[in-house]
Specification:
With 159 residues, the chain is an alpha+beta fold. It has 4 helices and 6 strands; from the N terminus they run E-E-H-H-E-E-H-H-E-E.
């Protein structure tokens, strides 16, 4: 199908194609959709399903299809969390105390008060930052008031 500009500039007008070609185009699209639905484990379509043997050693195992909406949402969420980790580390650097060994430390209570103005996910972001080696602190989980005096040390700034 080619776009042909209308003489009145009212927008594109599609050149007419014959009826048989339209049917073939529709059938092609319908067949592509059917195949995709048969591969989808959550589809309720009837018919023989191809047996795709999952291999846990496959690098794509447990990952969404590249370029899918799920993949794009995951990448966007990862970028958002990474940005929050950078902001948290910058706040520790800006508001923490520098010790004689050059490391920067802030108490959990002070950080909690500062960071809650930005986000309510302080503990989750701290855990993510520790997982990636940006901060260090004692304990598995930090709780407001109980752990207000726990020191949080900035190990390195994220790049």
């Amino acid at each position: 199908m080619e776009n042909v500009e209308n003489a009145d500039d009212e927008g594109p007008v599609f050149e007419s194609i014959n009826f048989a070609d339209r049917i073939k185009l529709f059938q092609k699209k319908a067949e592509e959709h059917r195949k995709k639905q048969l591969e989808n484990p959550f589809s309720e379509w009837e018919g023989p399903r191809p047996v795709n043997k999952l291999d846990k050693s496959d690098e794509n195992y447990g990952r969404p299809v590249e370029g899918s909406k799920t993949d794009l949402r995951g990448k966007k969420a990862h970028e958002s969390v990474s940005n929050e980790v950078r902001v948290l580390c910058q706040m520790i650097k800006d508001y923490g105390e520098e010790l004689s060994d050059g490391s920067i430390v802030i108490s959990f209570g002070d950080l909690f008060q500062l960071y809650t103005h930005i986000s309510n996910k302080v503990v989750g972001i701290l855990l993510r930052a520790r997982k990636h080696g940006f901060v260090q602190f004692e304990g598995e989980m930090l709780f407001q008031r109980r752990d207000d005096n726990v020191p949080i040390r900035l190990v390195q700034m994220p790049s």
